[in-house]
Design a protein that fits this description.
The complex is a heterodimer. By secondary structure, chain A is mostly helical. In chain A, 70% of the residues lie in helices and 1% in strands. The longest helix of chain A is centred in the N-terminal third of the chain and has 34 residues, at 62-95. Classes of the chains: A mainly alpha, B alpha+beta.
Chain lengths: 558, 359
C-alpha cells in the first residue's frame, strides 16, 4: 500500500524522542530486572548455566513444592470469603439507604493504609499464644492457615469492595423500572439485572484478591508459623540461605499465577462493553426500612471487625507488657530501643514515599501523555504500553529480586544505585507503575482529543498545550496518582525487603525485623505510625480536593 | 484563482477505502460545503486537507505550495470542531489569544486583537469568562474567533453547528456566512445537514462512499441533481419506477409520461422518473396538459407552513398498478380545494420538472 510519508514537525520529533526515552527507562526499571531474574533461574550458585536443573530440583523437593500448593489453597479460600463479603458490603453502599454511609465507606478503606503485617499482629494479640481470646480457638493455633486467611480477608477487603462499588454504581435505573413494570420478582431482578451487571466486577475482584493473597509477604511472614507459602519461601531462599538461583525459581513460580490472573482479567475486561450509555438514568436507591436495617446491621458488623483489628493493633502498641502488665505507655514508640535505626526508618519511609510520589507521578503522567498523543510511531508506543502493563502482573517480591540480580550485577553502570534511597524509589515507582499509567491514560482519554489539532493549527508547540491546558485539566487525577503512590510506598514490604541498606531501611521493613526479633508491641507501634501517616495524607487529599481545587479551578464551575 | 488543488486523493484503512481518487479545486475566498451522509468520507477529506489524518496517496496544493507531506503545524489553516475544543481552564480571552501568544507579539497588541476578534463574533464582554459559563452558541463563536485569530488563509469547519439547538443553529448560519463574506477567507465546512449546505455554501461538494457525486452551486445541485443519490439526499424526491420507451418517453405501470430528452440511456432500460413534491402541479391545469393523472389523497401530514400529501394514482394502463408519491400542498390550496384524506383530484407532472436516472 503506497502511503504519503508526512514530514515530522518539531512537535513530532520531541514527542517521539520522549517516547523512545520512556521505553528505554521502562526497559531498565521493569524489563531488564525481570529478564535478569528469569536468567538467574537457569544458573547455579556460581553463575554457570545449568538449564532446567533448578526447576527440576524445585519440583522434586516436596517441602518447596508444597508451598506452592499452600499458596493456591490460601488464595482460593480467601477469595471465596472476601468476594461475597465485599459484594454485600458494596451492594449496601450503592443500592440501599444507609445511615452515615460515608462512615461505612471510610471504614472499609482503612486496611489500604496499613502494611499487610498489621492484621497479622492484631491476630497474634487476639488469638496468639498469649492472646486474650485464645480460649475461643479451643486448643487450635492461629499460626498457620487460619490466621493467614483471616488476616488476608482484612487486607484484601477494601480492594475487592472498591472494584465492586464501581461495578454496582454504574446501573441504569430504567432497567430496574422495566423489570418492575414487567412484574419480575425481587429475586429474579437480582439474578437477571443486578448480578449480570456486576459480572465483570466480580471476576475482576476475585482475580485481584487471588493475586494479592498469593503475592503478599507480610501476613504469611508474621502469622504463617510453619505453614510455608511461596512468598515466604522466596524470602527464606534469598535472605536465609542466600540461594539466589532457587529464590529466582520460586519467584518465577510465584509469577505464574499472578501473571495468569492478570491475563485472564484483561481478556475478560476486553469483553465488557459500556453498560452505561450517556442516556442512562443513574439508579438512586429509595429507602426501604426492612432491607436497609438488615444491610446497616451487616455493615456495622463488618466495620466492627475492621475497627477491632485496627484497634487491637493500636491498643497492643500502647500496652506495657502483654499480657501481664496492661497499663498504657508510649515506650513502644521509642523505636531506638528495638531497632538500631530508631525513628530513622520512619523518616526514610516518608522520604521514599514523597520521592516516589513526585518522581513517579511526573513520569507516569508525562509518559501516558506521550504514549497517548504521539502521532503514528506505533511500534515504540506498543513497547511502552506493554512495559507499562507488565508491573501489574509481577509480584513485588519478584520485582525486588530482579532488581538485586540486575542492579547488583558486576559491570552494570547503574550499579551505583544499589543500596541507595534511589533504588527504593525507582523500584516502588516501577512496582506501582500500571495503576498510575492507567489512571493518567483514562484522564487523558476523557479530554477533547482535538486540543492538539487546535494547537497545531495555531502553531503553538504541543508541550505548551501540555503544560498550560492538559496538565491543569488533569490535576485531580494527577493528585490521585500521587496519593496512590505515597500510600503504597508507605505500606509496601514485599518489593523493598531485598533492596534496603542499613541507612535506608524503611518503616515497614523495620516492623518485619522487629517482629522477627519478638517485639510484637513495637512492630505494632510502627504499623500504627504508618497507618496514621498514610491515612492523614489521604484525608488531607480529600480536603484539598474539596476546598482547594474548587478555589484554584474556578473554571470547573458553571 | 485556484486556492486549493486536491489531486487524486485517496485514503485507505486496510481494505477499506475511505476516500477514492478525489480531485477538487477550490477558489480563493470561496465557501465550500462537503455534504453527505455519515461515513461518506467528508470529514476524512477535511482532515486530510488539514494534515491531521494524512492521505494514502494523492497531492494537495495550497496557494501553489505543495502541502501534501507537511504536518498540520506547517500548514496554513484555522479549524473549528463540532466539540468546539475550547480549553476549559483558560478564559475566553486566553483561548482567543492562544495562537497569538506563541508568536511573541506584544501583550498590548495581543489584547487589542483579542478585543477586536471578540467584537467581531459579537461577544465583546465575554473575555474574562470561562467557556463553561457560556452557552453552546457562544462557545462556538469563541472557537471561531480563536481559529481566525492568526488570520489563516483557510478556515476549516467540521460540523460546527450540529451540537447546537435548532434556533441557535439558524442564527449562527447567517453570522458565519456574513463573517466569511466580510473577511473573504476561503472556507470549507463539513456538514450532513443539506439545508445548512444549501443556505451557506457558494458551492456544494456532495459525497457518498468516499467519492464525489456532484460539485455545484446550491441551486444547481437542487434543480439538476447529477445522480439518483444526490436527488434523494438533497431535498425530497419521488422515485417512480419505469422503462425508457423513447428518448423523451417513459412508461410507468403501462402509462406513458413525457420527459425531457434523455441521452446516454438505452431504450428499454429500467429508469427512475423523479419529481420533487413541490413540483407536483394541482391548480389551473389547462386542457391537454402533459402527464396528467387522477389521484387519491391517502395521507395528509400537517408540517406547519404546508401539508405533505401522499397521493395514490390508480394507473389504468395494460399492467395496472398503484403508484404512490408525495406532493406539497400549501395551506391556501388545501382550503380552496377542500382537500382532505380520501379526496380525489387531478394533478400534473410538468415534464420540465422531471428528472430521469438509470434504475
Amino acid at each position: 500500500m503506497s502511503s504519503t510519508k508526512v514530514g515530522l514537525s518539531r512537535d513530532d520529533l520531541v514527542m517521539r524522542g520522549g517516547v523512545v526515552l520512556l521505553a528505554a527507562l521502562l526497559l531498565v526499571i521493569v524489563g531488564l530486572p525481570l529478564w535478569a531474574l528469569l536468567a538467574k533461574g537457569f544458573e547455579d550458585r556460581d553463575g554457570k548455566f545449568v538449564g532446567l536443573a533448578n526447576y527440576i530440583s524445585y519440583f522434586s523437593t516436596p517441602a518447596l513444592f508444597n508451598s506452592a500448593l499452600n499458596s493456591l489453597h490460601v488464595a482460593a479460600v480467601s477469595t471465596v470469603i472476601v468476594v461475597p463479603l465485599s459484594f454485600l458490603y458494596a451492594y449496601a453502599l450503592t443500592r440501599t439507604v444507609l445511615p452515615v454511609r460515608w462512615l461505612f465507606q471510610g471504614i472499609a478503606l482503612i486496611p489500604i493504609f496499613a502494611p499487610s503485617l498489621l492484621p497479622g499482629l492484631a491476630l497474634i494479640y487476639l488469638f496468639g499464644t498469649q492472646g486474650f481470646l485464645k480460649a475461643l480457638l479451643g486448643g487450635g493455633s492461629i499460626y498457620g492457615f487460619d490466621g493467614i486467611v483471616i488476616a488476608q480477608v482484612f487486607y484484601c477487603f477494601p480492594h475487592a469492595t472498591l472494584i465492586l462499588v464501581t461495578a454496582l454504581a454504574t446501573a441504569d435505573a430504567r432497567l430496574y423500572e422495566a423489570a418492575d413494570v414487567l412484574g419480575a420478582s425481587k429475586l429474579r431482578v437480582f439474578f437477571t439485572v443486578t448480578l449480570p451487571g456486576a459480572k465483570y466486577g466480580l471476576i475482576s475482584a476475585a482475580l485481584v484478591v487471588f493475586t494479592l493473597v498469593i503475592t503478599d509477604f507480610g501476613i504469611a511472614k508474621v502469622i504463617g508459623g510453619n505453614f510455608n507459602v511461596l512468598a515466604t519461601d522466596v524470602y527464606k531462599q534469598v535472605i536465609g540461605q542466600q540461594n539466589f538461583s532457587m529464590g529466582a525459581v520460586v519467584g518465577m513460580v510465584l509469577l505464574a499465577p499472578a501473571a495468569l490472573a492478570f491475563v485472564v482479567d484483561r481478556l475478560v475486561q476486553r469483553k465488557q462493553v459500556a453498560l452505561l450509555t450517556a442516556r442512562a438514568v443513574p439508579l438512586v436507591p429509595k429507602p426501604k426500612p426492612g432491607r436497609d436495617f438488615v444491610f446497616t446491621l451487616f455493615c456495622t458488623l463488618v466495620s466492627i471487625g475492621i475497627l477491632a483489628i485496627l484497634g487491637m493493633a493500636i491498643w497492643g502498641s500502647l500496652i506495657k507488657y502483654w499480657p501481664y502488665n496492661l497499663s498504657l505507655t508510649l515506650d513502644n514508640y521509642d523505636f531506638a530501643k528495638f531497632d538500631a535505626n530508631g525513628w530513622d526508618s520512619y523518616w526514610n519511609s516518608v522520604e521514599m514515599a514523597v520521592g516516589a510520589a513526585l518522581f513517579g507521578t511526573a513520569l507516569m503522567f508525562t509518559g501516558a501523555w506521550l504514549t497517548e498523543k504521539t502521532r503514528d510511531f506505533h511500534i515504540v508506543r506498543g513497547v511502552v504500553q506493554l512495559l507499562a502493563f507488565l508491573p501489574m502482573a509481577v509480584p513485588g517480591l519478584v520485582l525486588g529480586l530482579g532488581y538485586i540480580f540486575f542492579f547488583n550485577a558486576p559491570g552494570n553502570p547503574l550499579g551505583f544505585l544499589y543500596a541507595t534511597m534511589g533504588i527504593l524509589v525507582v523500584n516502588t515507582v516501577a512496582h506501582f507503575y500500571t495503576v498510575g499509567h492507567l489512571t493518567a491514560t483514562t484522564a487523558l482519554k476523557q479530554i477533547d482529543p482535538e486540543f492538539e489539532s487546535v494547537s497545531a493549527s495555531l502553531k503553538v508547540p504541543i508541550w505548551r498545550t501540555f503544560t498550560r491546558v492538559t496538565t491543569p485539566i488533569c490535576l485531580p487525577s494527577i493528585l490521585d496518582i500521587a496519593i496512590y503512590l505515597f500510600v503504597n510506598a508507605m505500606t509496601t514490604v514485599s518489593s523493598v525487603i531485598f533492596l534496603y541498606s542499613p541507612d535506608t531501611k524503611l518503616a515497614s521493613v523495620a516492623a518485619v525485623n522487629i517482629e522477627e526479633a519478638g517485639t510484637t508491641a513495637a512492630a505494632a507501634a510502627l504499623c500504627v505510625v504508618i497507618v496514621l501517616t498514610s491515612a492523614a495524607v489521604k484525608v488531607a487529599h480529600l480536603l484539598a480536593d474539596r476546598f482547594l481545587l474548587d478555589r484554584l479551578q474556578a473554571w470547573r464551575r458553571r | 484563482m485556484t486556492y486549493l488543488e486536491v489531486r487524486s486523493l485517496s485514503k485507505r484503512y486496510g481494505d477499506f477505502t475511505a476516500l477514492g481518487d478525489i480531485t477538487l479545486d477550490i477558489a480563493e475566498g470561496e465557501f465550500v460545503c462537503f455534504l453527505g451522509p455519515s461515513g461518506c468520507g467528508k470529514t476524512t477529506l477535511l482532515r486530510a486537507i488539514a494534515g491531521l489524518d494524512p492521505q494514502s496517496s494523492g497531492t494537495i496544493h495550497q496557494k501553489g505550495r505543495d502541502v501534501s507531506a507537511l504536518p498540520p503545524a506547517k500548514r496554513d489553516f484555522g479549524i473549528v470542531f463540532q466539540s468546539y475544543a475550547l480549553f476549559p481552564n483558560l478564559t475566553v480571552a486566553d483561548n482567543v489569544g492562544y495562537g497569538l501568544v506563541s508568536r511573541r507579539e506584544k501583550k498590548a497588541a495581543i489584547a487589542a486583537r483579542v478585543v477586536e476578534l471578540l467584537a467581531m463574533v459579537g461577544l465583546p464582554d465575554a473575555g474574562p469568562k470561562y467557556p463553561a459559563q457560556l452557552s453552546g452558541g457562544q462557545q462556538q463563536r469563541v472557537a471561531l474567533a480563536r481559529a481566525l485569530a492568526t488570520s489563516p488563509g483557510l478556515l476549516l469547519l467540521d460540523e460546527p453547528l450540529s451540537a447546537l439547538d435548532a434556533r441557535v443553529r439558524l442564527r449562527l448560519r447567517h453570522e458565519i456566512k456574513a463573517l466569511q463574506r466580510r473577511l473573504g477567507v476561503t472556507t470549507i465546512m463539513v456538514t450532513h445537514d443539506q439545508e445548512e449546505a444549501l443556505t451557506m455554501a457558494d458551492r456544494i461538494v456532495v459525497m457518498n462512499h468516499g467519492a464525489i457525486e456532484q460539485v455545484g452551486a446550491p441551486q444547481e445541485i437542487y434543480r439538476h441533481p447529477a445522480s439518483a443519490f444526490v436527488a434523494d439526499f438533497v431535498g425530497s424526491m419521488n422515485f417512480l419506477q419505469g422503462t425508457l420507451m423513447a428518448p423523451d418517453k417513459i412508461q410507468v405501470a403501462g402509462v406513458d409520461f413525457a420527459c425531457p430528452g434523455q441521452e446516454g440511456l438505452a431504450l428499454g432500460q429500467k429508469v427512475n422518473l423523479c419529481i420533487r413534491p413541490e413540483d407536483v402541479r394541482v391548480r389551473d391545469l389547462p386542457q391537454g396538459i402533459a402527464n396528467r393523472l387522477t389521484v387519491e389523497v391517502t395521507e395528509l401530514d400537517f408540517v406547519g407552513a404546508f401539508c405533505r400529501a401522499t397521493l395514490k394514482a390508480a394507473l389504468q394502463g395494460p399492467s395496472a398498478a398503484d403508484v404512490a408519491m408525495t406532493a406539497d400542498f400549501s395551506s391556501n390550496l388545501i382550503r380552496d380545494l377542500g382537500v382532505e384524506r380520501g379526496t380525489r383530484l387531478d394533478v400534473a407532472l410538468p415534464p420540465d420538472r422531471l428528472r430521469v436516472f438509470a434504475a
